[in-house]
């Protein structure tokens, strides 16, 4: 970690200007430093988006009984077969046992009667009066009980996020409850006396453009934004809300640099915070922070400039919330990136890109204070200082 000059802040602390960790190290630290929160049992229907703390094991076999895979006839013995009844999905199994030389008409998903040799689909059989004929192979078109799952089989490992596919799979296995990580509870504190939350900004004012980004990133990473407030530039108010109980992580927007109104460092010093990320060698978004207070609460500092805040939200906020939620870090997505971007000689340059098939193209015109270019982009690309046009770079999908 390179350290540049250390100017004294208006609050009297020191500030590690400009450099800090590399972008790649900061991203990795944020994904690995916070430990996953505790686990709880919840109804599987309420588990969407949560991370499994334990593997899910099948309660029931799947299929739970020998079942027909086609509509047609369940047949026993040799052709021809005399049709003696009909059995449909959800209906009673008729007859109890199929005798050689007989058949029942059967629907896909119905219980196959004992004694059945195979199910012959309508389109591969001939039916005249009550006699059916056709060629069969033993067990053809019968799904055998337990062929997909047996009770106790692991269906989904711990660490996976509960998606719709997971919910479907565990329902098939008769599971009604799962053990998942607690969702991280997050507080978002928006600083800046000039920041307003609605209407047209008057002279000296700006509309809050950081909250929508932070809220979306928190949600995407599996967190719950439970408290969201504007605290202006009042250091006591900031201190009170950083310190207040009831959350696992506090996000502070603005207040990350070294100006007179940037009180975050003072508050963190008072709270005895341990710093994990204190500035990142990237442009934009270098004044970002990740720290843990002495009572185990996490804090993320986002720069006030909105595009810089977006960069920081994807660099430290998203991985930190995901780590608290118990999610394993995503494998990096890398694509060749084409187009002009001014390299940042001391670290990473993050630029908005359009995604097109197997490559990404730089959206020109991004500035730290403006989200205009990002609003037309699909992702950010993380460009190394010695980047060559068309070579692969890490891609971060935009919220
Ligand atoms: N002497 C130095 N000054 C600054 C440095 C530096 O290294 N040395 N870094 C600059 C960079 S880069 C950034 S980014 C900003 C970060 O500053 P803060 O995080 O302390 O943010 P503020 O000073 O409060 O605001 C910066 C800018 O953003 C506007 N802002 C703030 N909050 C919001 C919001 N929620 N929505 C929209 N816009 C917001 C604010 O009005 C300012 O224009 O520091 C530079 N200075
Ligand atoms: O990094 Mo500031 O992060 O350029 O806008």
Outline: elongated
Structural class: alpha/beta
Spans where pLDDT lies below 50 across 5 or more residues: 1-18
Bound molecules: ligand LQZAQKY5, molybdate ion
EC number: 2.10.1.1
Enzyme class: transferase
Function: Catalyzes the insertion of molybdate into adenylated molybdopterin with the concomitant release of AMP.
Protein name: Molybdopterin molybdenumtransferase
What does this protein structure show overall?
Pathway: Cofactor biosynthesis; molybdopterin biosynthesis. Residues 187-323 form the MoaB/Mog domain. The chain has 399 residues and is an alpha/beta fold. It has helices at 23-32, 164-172, 211-220, 235-243, 264-270, 306-324, 372-375, and strands at residues 21-22, 39-43, 56-57, 67-68, 72-75, 81-87, 102-106, 118-121, 126-128, 131-133, 142-143, 154-156, 177-181, 185-191, 195-196, 206-207, 224-232, 249-253, 274-278, 280-283, 289-292, 298-302, 333-338, 348-356, 359-362, 379-383, 392-397. β21 (289-292) and β22 (298-302) form a beta hairpin. α1 (23-32) packs parallel to α6 (306-324) and α3 (211-220) runs parallel beside α6. It is elongated. Bound molecules: ligand LQZAQKY5 and molybdate ion. Residues 17, 190, 192, 194-195, 206, 208-210, 253-259, 262, 284, 286-287, 303-306, 308, 368 line the site of ligand LQZAQKY5. Molybdate ion (MOO) binds next to loops.
What's the arrangement of secondary structure elements?
Blueprint lengths: L20 E2 H10 L6 E5 L12 E2 L9 E2 L3 E4 L5 E7 L14 E5 L11 E4 L4 E3 L2 E3 L8 E2 L10 E3 L7 H9 L4 E5 L3 E7 L3 E2 L9 E2 L3 H10 L3 E9 L2 H9 L5 E5 L10 H7 L3 E5 L1 E4 L5 E4 L5 E5 L3 H19 L8 E6 L9 E9 L2 E4 L9 H4 L3 E5 L8 E6 L2
Helix pairs in contact: 1-6, 3-6
The protein binds ligand LQZAQKY5 and molybdate ion.
Ligand LQZAQKY5 binds next to helix 6.
